[in-house]
Specification:
With 402 residues, the chain is an all-alpha fold. The protein is built from 15 helices and 2 strands.
Length: 402
């Protein structure tokens, strides 16, 4: 089986360090913490047809809108390769079970969030359906950190766990953007990434039947895809969709390897196609990105416990795992999907338990999905508590082996 590259572990360390520092800061001096997040560095006056008001650039905006798209593109690359490359884990009919698990996990999380909200939510600003987008996403970095400890390096369950978490992460960001009531959608702006990516593919990336040496070198250069990424990000952000999705439209046009080695495979470090080269260049910067994301989005107020905390934990610990398992079983029994023969039912249960952790993407969704204040901080505490599913999964995995 393939080995997962150790840089994912460094990502987890950086994220946890940012969360720990932010939590210490917000509990010792909450006013200075929130003032630092919203510190207005400068204002950007945009044309009236793009935005009627100037945009205030703050540390929170820089991390969420300018830095996190790199991380989303990084994990999106793994999902794209799994879908389209030879031996990809989601190519052809092999996509049935993971896609069903992703959809089932999302539906389960949303259903339990709505049900628990009706039963126990008491916040004055709460209304039916508020915040259901939050528990859909997960945390691929921390999921890897735990799943590797549960299953071991190279186990097929680790591969499946990463695929499911990446799919839920991207779906969670997309649903948050599409259902944001305050978003002003100008979807014609999506023509910009479409035109830019189409032009780069036709003129540079597409492999002709008889390529010349000059054409081959142009296709292997990185600068056309970097420029396309910048324009794509601008088009997605201007359209009203989450800027975190801004680099995803460029992924399909970048030349890639012939076949997949697995999610975050260590073997990809020795590949020199443009897609993997760009990913290699991002490895060190992404550790910095995740540290600052934990610092700006991970401040856990230990006194923020409220019914919203329990609602989120119910959605993550009950709804998402049960929905994910239901989706996998439905795909296997009704659609004839298959999973690696080495996987046992007990390991599917552990995969579902690991999926019950959520932090990075749900924390990114909090600001637009919830009204802020008490509900947001209570939900953030719920995200932190959801990580306790990790040690439980490790304990159950070791008990099962014995």
């Amino acid at each position: 089986m393939y080995r997962v590259s150790p840089f994912v572990r460094r990502f987890a360390h950086a994220l946890l360090a940012g969360i720990g520092l932010a939590s210490l800061w917000v509990n010792l001096s909450p006013d200075s913490y929130y003032d630092a997040l919203e510190w207005r560095l400068f204002d950007v006056a945009l044309p009236g047809w793009l935005s009627p008001m100037a945009v205030s650039v703050t540390p929170l905006l820089i991390v969420s809108h300018l830095m996190m798209p790199l991380f989303v593109a990084f994990i999106g690359k793994e999902l794209w390769e799994a879908l389209i490359l030879d031996r990809g884990a989601m190519s052809g009919r092999r996509a049935l079970a993971p896609v069903a698990g992703i959809i089932g996990g999302a539906i389960g999380a949303i259903f339990v969030w709505l049900l628990a909200s009706l039963m126990i939510e008491t916040a004055e600003e709460a209304r039916f359906g508020l915040g259901w987008q939050v528990p859909v996403g997960g945390d691929v970095v921390l999921a890897f950190f735990i799943a590797r400890a549960v299953f071991g390096q190279g186990h097929p369950a680790l591969h499946l766990s990463l695929l499911l978490t990446i799919g839920l992460d991207i779906l969670g960001i997309l649903l948050t953007g599409l259902t944001d009531p305050e978003a002003i959608f100008r979807l014609t702006w999506l023509l910009l990434p479409l035109v830019v990516c189409g032009t780069v593919w036709l003129t540079i990336a597409r492999a002709p039947k008889a390529p010349t040496e000059a054409r081959r070198r142009r296709a292997l250069a990185l600068w056309p895809y970097v420029i396309a990424g910048l324009l794509s990000w601008f088009g997605v952000a201007a359209s009203g969709l989450p800027p975190a999705l801004g680099l995803l439209p460029v992924l399909p046009i970048i030349p890639h390897a012939d076949h997949s080695f697995g999610v975050f495979a260590e073997a990809e470090e020795f590949l020199h196609d443009p897609l993997n080269r760009l990913a290699h260049l991002l490895v060190k910067p992404l550790a910095v990105v995740l540290f600052f994301f934990g610092l700006t989005r991970g401040g856990i107020d230990l006194g923020a416990f409220a019914p919203t905390t329990l609602v989120l934990l119910a959605a993550l610990w009950i709804g998402k795992p049960l929905g994910l398992l239901a989706g996998l079983m439905l795909a296997m029994r009704v659609l004839g999907a298959s999973l690696p023969a080495a996987l046992r039912r007990r390991e599917l249960g552990l995969i579902a338990l690991v999926a019950g952790m959520g932090f990075t993407v749900p924390a990114l969704s909090l600001e637009s999905a919830l009204p802020g204040g008490v509900m947001t901080e209570a939900a953030r505490l719920g995200l932190a508590l959801s990580l306790l599913a990790g040690p439980l999964a490790i304990a159950l995995g070791r008990f099962g082996r014995r």
